Inverse folding.
């Protein structure tokens, strides 16, 4: 028996408007790019556009120091190396995140150790992280997933008590603030991504922020082939990568940064409305909020569906139904990173070589989340009220027709 209402079964789709456009740009962006082109100064060692962006971005994130670089993945690796994390050190990471969070540890010869997440927010659980600390632990990477913010009071305290580097993976949280202070400035180092899907984008790109001068100097060196800030061209006092971005990226990021706050407000209004519209719908639970999040980055709209009863196949059927309703880009989200064979193989290889234990990671909450989560990309929060109401209608329709999808 099928409900004719579902678009999958020939009913009218709940959403008749296309996904709101992303990225957003106009002649201002084109002019900025052409200006760099005509200047002939295409690299940041020749021009000053990236440097200007760095100052603007650092200020936007309430940070004393900010450096731009080529992507968010290597921002994490640079942060770890700048903070002194190296061979055999353990780095605590959540398993519900993009692979880069764990891969960054492996890139510097360190061992990613997984600690489970909170079932209501998908964020790294400070208690689980605390329980994973050993005498080899050197860093924790709380991820501000979806634009929500990990418990930075707890993580900053863990960092102080156990002398650990805290790296805020803020790839999804540009503009988010914890009790009034922007992410990236709340502990040791913050890392950001400007990849195509992110709320601030130049196609690719990244940044690191800190309030600590020593860490700032080390970050600069990691990005600039080990050079000394203010030093000579061939003065390399440590071994560093070349992770610089181009002036073209810097120019685009400056114009895009000018739009960010207004876009974030729009997304926030729509997300709050979506929360309201879904609050009484049985079978779907949008992620919890936290009053300490004085500004939510609104990168993803995350929901769990008790209606799936932990059945990932039913989740996948519902996802197809949502796509048919017009909700393009809705995603079943991450797969458990603590079960990723490549990551676990590399982690074990390092631990084995050094004679360190690497117990099979146990993260039951993440396993559960990966069976019943669906998220929407940020662009769905950039529509008007009618778009948001039709998004809620699509979700409601699918979740109330769940028995037709079994
Ligand atoms: C996007 C992302 C990254 C990596 O950024 P890239 O710029 O794509 O390399 C790292 N961590 C998280 C949580 C991300 O979402």
């Amino acid at each position: 028996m099928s409900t004719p209402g579902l678009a999958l079964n020939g009913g009218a789709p709940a959403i008749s408007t296309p996904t709101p456009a992303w990225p957003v740009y106009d002649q201002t962006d084109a002019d900025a790019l052409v200006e760099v082109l005509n200047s002939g100064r295409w690299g940041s060692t020749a021009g000053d556009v990236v440097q200007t962006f760095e100052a603007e971005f650092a200020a936007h994130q309430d940070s004393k120091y900010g450096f731009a670089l080529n992507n968010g993945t290597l921002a994490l690796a640079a942060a770890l190396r700048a903070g002194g994390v190296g061979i055999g050190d353990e780095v605590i990471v959540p398993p519900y995140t993009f692979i880069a969070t764990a891969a960054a540890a492996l890139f510097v010869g360190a061992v990613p150790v997984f600690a489970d997440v909170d079932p209501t927010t998908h964020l790294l659980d400070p208690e689980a992280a605390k329980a994973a600390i050993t005498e080899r632990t050197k860093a924790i990477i709380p991820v501000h997933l979806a634009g929500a913010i990990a418990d930075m009071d707890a993580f900053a305290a863990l960092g102080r008590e156990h002398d650990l580097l805290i790296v805020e993976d803020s790839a999804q949280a540009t503009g988010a603030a914890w009790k009034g202070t922007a992410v990236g400035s709340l502990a040791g180092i913050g890392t950001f991504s400007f990849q195509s899907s992110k709320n601030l984008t130049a196609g690719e790109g990244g940044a690191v922020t800190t309030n600590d001068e020593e860490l700032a100097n080390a970050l600069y060196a990691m990005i600039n082939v080990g050079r000394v800030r203010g030093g000579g061209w061939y003065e390399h006092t440590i071994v560093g990568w070349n992770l610089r971005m181009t002036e073209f990226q810097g120019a685009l990021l400056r114009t895009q940064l000018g739009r960010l706050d207004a876009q974030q407000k729009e997304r926030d209004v729509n997300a709050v409305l979506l929360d309201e519209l879904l609050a009484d719908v049985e079978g779907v639970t949008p992620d919890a909020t936290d009053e300490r999040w004085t500004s939510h980055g609104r990168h993803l709209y995350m929901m769990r569906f008790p209606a799936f009863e932990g059945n990932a196949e039913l989740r996948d059927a519902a996802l197809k139904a949502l796509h048919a309703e017009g909700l393009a880009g809705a995603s079943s989200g991450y797969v458990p990173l603590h079960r990723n064979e490549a990551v676990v193989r590399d982690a074990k290889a390092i631990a084995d070589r050094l004679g360190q234990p690497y117990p099979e990671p146990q993260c039951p909450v993440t396993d559960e989340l990966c069976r019943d989560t669906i998220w929407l990309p940020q662009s769905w929060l950039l529509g008007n009220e009618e778009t948001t109401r039709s998004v809620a209608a699509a979700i409601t329709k699918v979740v109330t027709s769940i028995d037709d999808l079994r």
Remarks:
- The radius of gyration is 22 Å.
- The chain has twelve helices and 13 strands.
- The CA atoms of residues 156 and 187 lie 6 Å apart.
